[in-house]
Amino acid sequence: MDQIQAEIEAIRSQLEALRQERDTLTNQEVQPENNSPKAIAAAYRHQARVAAEVSAEVQGIDNAIAALQAQLEQKQQQLQPLAKPKQPLTLADEVEIATQQAYDHANRINELATELVEELRALKSIAHDMSPSYWQLHHKPFITGFKGASVPYLRSDQGVLMIGKVII
């Protein structure tokens, strides 16, 4: 166990060193000897010649990092204790889990119901305002059926979920 932990630490330190080396290679600025156009051009040409070499080196570092990451994950898996076999849930546990899931769904339904009621009331208001004009223009109603429109919601009465409805 201690040997695996030591190997993990060695891999982590090597990963850190590689990342620092990569950062150093990729964060090099072009620094001409002076601000003359000739010096600036020479500095950028030199950087272009070196860029291909640096790119290959960075690719090699990236490959090494990926390989070490995979090795690190493998070593960390070895440290994980073998999973204990799960004991079957008791009936009470199953009921508690299912009850919580039901209440979560009920809460979500109630959130949606609140939004739907607001939207339907806004639509009803618009329809009420424009209905006379719509009737004059098209000789038919714009929207019908609001009298029977309702939205379901859930409430809890002493631990029993009950479905009700909000009439719009």
Provide the fold topology.
Elements: H1 2-26, H2 37-79, H3 91-138, E1 150-157, E2 160-167
Antiparallel strand pairs: 1-2
Helix pairs in contact: 1-2
Description:
The protein is flat, with a radius of gyration of 35 Å. The model has no long low-confidence stretch (mean pLDDT 87). Helices cover 69% and strands 10% of the residues. The protein has a two-stranded antiparallel ribbon. The chain has two domains: 2-79; 91-167. It starts with a helix and ends with a strand. The relative contact order is 0.08. It has three helices and two strands, in the order αααββ. The chain has 168 residues and is mainly α. Helix 1 (2-26) packs antiparallel against helix 2. The chain has helices spanning 2-26, 37-79, 91-138, and strands spanning 150-157, 160-167.
Put the structure in a nutshell.
The chain has helices at 2-26, 37-79, 91-138; strands at residues 150-157, 160-167. It is mostly helical and 168 residues long. Helix 1 (2-26) packs antiparallel against helix 2.
